[in-house]
């Protein structure tokens, strides 16, 4: 595992590190994380939902973002927003490790 990275509960072949945390100082942008998702990795299995939304920015590779039963492919140099409250998960189906920046927003 890379220095300062961890694997969130319910994820596999997935390493993430929080980049910053604005907390209550920002009305919309709460925090950001950097994730490396290896082939077959992602999560959480079955998806999860929460009040906040996510913006996923893919900087290397490609990922599949599941929103409910709908799959969205996000390529390198693209982003995808998941609204708060939506059931979602993120997966890497490719050989290459994907590198993703996640912004947590209200």
Q: Would you kindly provide a written description of the structure presented here, covering whatever features stand out?
A:
With 106 residues, the protein is an all-beta fold. The protein has one domain (12-105): Sandwich (Jelly Rolls), CATH 2.60.120.10. The chain has strands at residues 12-21, 29-48, 53-60, 62-67, 70-75, 78-82, 88-91, 98-105. Strands 1, 2, 3, 4, 5, 6, 7 and 8 form an 8-stranded antiparallel β-sheet that branches. A hairpin with a 7-residue loop joins β1 and β2 (29-48). It is globular and about 40 Å long. The termini are far apart.
Describe the secondary-structure layout:
Blueprint: E1 12-21, E2 29-48, E3 53-60, E4 62-67, E5 70-75, E6 78-82, E7 88-91, E8 98-105
Antiparallel strand pairs: 1-2, 2-7, 2-8, 3-6, 3-8, 4-5, 4-7
Overall 3D shape: globular
Head-to-tail CA distance between termini? 30 Å
Q: Name the CATH superfamily classification.
A: Jelly Rolls
| Rg, nearest Å | 13 Å
**Helix-strand category:** mainly beta
Number of strands: 8
Residue share in helix = under 10%
Report the CATH C-level class: Mainly Beta
Number of helices: 0
Strand content: over 45%
pLDDT < 50 runs, ≥5 residues: none
Oligomeric state of the chains present here: single chain
Mean pLDDT across all residues, rounded? 92
CATH topology (fold) name: Jelly Rolls
* Overall number of domains: 1
Major β-sheet annotation = 8 strands, antiparallel
Assign the CATH architecture.
Answer: Sandwich
